[in-house]
Design brief:
The protein is mainly beta. The protein has one helix and seven strands; from the N terminus they run βββββββα. It has a five-stranded antiparallel sheet, with helices on one face. It has a two-stranded antiparallel sheet with strand order 3-4. It is globular and about 35 Å long. The two termini are 13 Å apart.
């Protein structure tokens, strides 16, 4: 499973320590929001995005929290462009739930064995 990186506001509760193979963090999100990232390899169907359709291969998944919403984005590893995961936005009342949402998203999308 992919590993996680963390950004966030000062004074935020730190996330678990990253493991081997951690993807570099994409940086702070505008407005001081929090995010988590992980390198993933989706199954044969790839990941559907709003902007470019299906993306496949080695990707980085970013789970973002801002203004009571959580959103999933992907990019080709080490690329500059991020794409919104289709259907990957939902309300999240408590920002403490970001780690759980990210863990679930990685579990669903990281399918290197198909």
């Amino acid at each position: 499973m992919g590993e996680q990186a963390v950004t966030g506001e000062a004074g935020a509760t730190p996330a678990p320590a990253p493991g081997p193979g951690q993807a570099p963090d994409a940086g702070a999100i505008e407005g001081g929001a929090s995010s988590r990232t992980a390198d993933i390899v989706p199954g044969p169907g790839g990941v559907m995005t709003d902007e470019v359709g299906v993306v496949t291969g080695e990707l980085t998944l970013r789970t973002e929290y801002a203004d009571g919403q959580v959103a999933l984005r992907v990019q080709y590893r080490e690329a500059d462009e991020w794409y919104a995961v289709t259907g990957g936005r939902a309300p999240l009342a408590d920002p403490a739930g970001l780690d759980a949402v990210h863990t679930i998203a990685v579990g669903l999308l990281d399918r290197p064995e198909g």
